[in-house]
Amino acid sequence: MRLQTMKKTMLLMMTVMAGFSVVACKDNTTTVPTSDIITETNAVIPQLTNPDAVFYQSEDFSLTYGELYAEMKINDGLTQLLNMVDSQLLATEISAVTAEEIANKKNFLTYGTDDPDEIADISLENKADYEEFYEQNLVLAGYEDDEDDYLRLVVAKDNYALAAMKDAANSEETWFVGPSTIANYYSNTYREALSSLKIRFMSETEAKDVMKSLNLVGSLGKLYRY
Predict the structure, then answer these.
(1) Computed from CA positions of residues 173, 177, 182, 185, in that sequence, does the dihedral angle turn out positive or negative?
(2) Apex CA 76: angle with CA 11 and CA 134, to 5°?
């Protein structure tokens, strides 16, 4: 049983590239036109040339390319299906997405922020890494040639969720965010006075050692407690 759990964990780790979306249920239903249903039976299905080849080997178990590929197909297929359903349910929200929202969302998904000043402070090397990672995520999500559609869907889902969280009709829900929730958040987190001390390190290694000893991590020019 332990080996099966370890193997499943490994499969999940290797297929984490296929993200999951949350389908928001709405009162109205949408019927997919018959013309949109694929009935082609002669489509070529990609296959592995050597599915029994070992992808990962340890003392406890081995993982073949075939097993990994099967898990990837399941996750990718589910992701594509959920995105198709979301596109139907959120058609109104998708049509309302603006070009500015799309641009901001692309920056956020790429650099972790949509603030122009923070993006300008990112080194060219890091920018290249972030942009490459973003492009890889587009490919893995199945939207390599449909970036605009992907970003519109992401923005539409965010907007729908935020609107629902602030809708007074959902005040009894645990995820409702009303004026009192916001007021409580700021009253619990606001600090009137903060002080800082600038420290100059002789080397990057010395700075990293100090940060490590204090459980601090750096991201986009800011420090966070790990």
Answers:
(1) positive
(2) 95
Residue 16's closest CA among 175, 129, 141, 115? 141
Quick: pLDDT tens for 68-83: 888 777 777 777 888 8
Query: b vs e for 24-58, b when ≥16 Cβ sit within 10 Å of the residue's Cβ?
Result: eeeeeeeeeeeeeeeeeeeeeeeeeeeeeeeeeee
* Token reading at 225: 């407690």
Q: What is the DSSP letter of 169?
A: G
Q: What proportion of the chain, given as a percentage, has pLDDT over 90?
A: 32
Residue 200 and residue 217: Cα distance in Å, rounded?
17
- Transcribe 40-90 into DSSP letters: -S-PPPP--S-TTSEEEE-SS-EEEHHHHHHHHHHHHHHHHHHHHHHHHHT
CA geometry: angle at 36 spanning 152 and 156, to 5°? 15
The pTM of the whole model exceeds 0.85: no
Task: With CA atoms as reference, report the closest residue to 101 among 144, 142, 145, 160.
Answer: 160
Report the alpha-carbon angle 125-132-147, nearest 5.
Answer: 135
Given a cut of 80, whether residue 225 has pLDDT beyond it is no
Position 221, amino acid: G
Q: What is the predicted pLDDT for the residue at 22?
A: 35
Between 48 and 162, the more confident residue is 162
Chain centroid to CA 91: 21
Residue 33 has pLDDT above 80, yes or no: no
